[in-house]
Every structure is written in structure tokens, then in C-alpha cells.
Design brief:
Radius of gyration: 16 Å
Number of helices: 2
Order of helices and strands: EHHEEEE
Shape: elongated
Helix content: 10-25%
Length: 69
């Protein structure tokens, strides 16, 4: 898998709990703050290195050429 890293979020524990409950617009977040929060990115680890962002699984065709996913 490929990892697309994004800047780490500086959330409080309460905000993290709300994000884990998949609340897209937690109470108390105004429109500007909501735009800047990346609630879909996750932490993952590969070869003892930690990444924050998204996993991307590239597809390969028969000629071993990468396809856009």
C-alpha cells in the first residue's frame, strides 16, 4: 500500500472521541474549523514507522503499468 501523508491534527481528546463516533459536524465547531479538520485520515504503521493520512492501493494491469485508482 502507498501512504498519502497529511498534516497531523491537533485535536483535543473530546474532539477525537467525536470524530471516532463519525460525527461530521460536532457541536461547537463553526464552519471554518470544520473545513480544516480532516476527519477521514487515520494513523497506520508499516515497518515500525507511523504514518498519518490515507492508504492508496495502486492497481497494475497485465503489462505491469500502474493504473490510476
Amino acid at each position: 500500500a502507498l501512504f498519502i501523508e497529511v498534516p497531523c491534527q491537533r485535536n483535543t481528546r473530546d474532539e477525537n472521541a467525536r470524530i471516532k463516533k463519525e460525527e461530521t459536524h460536532p457541536e461547537g465547531w463553526n464552519e471554518n474549523k470544520n473545513r480544516q479538520k480532516d476527519i477521514e485520515a487515520r494513523w497506520t504503521e508499516k515497518n515500525r514507522r507511523k504514518y498519518y493520512g490515507y492508504k492508496n492501493h495502486p492497481a497494475v494491469d497485465r503489462k505491469r503499468t500502474l493504473l490510476p485508482y
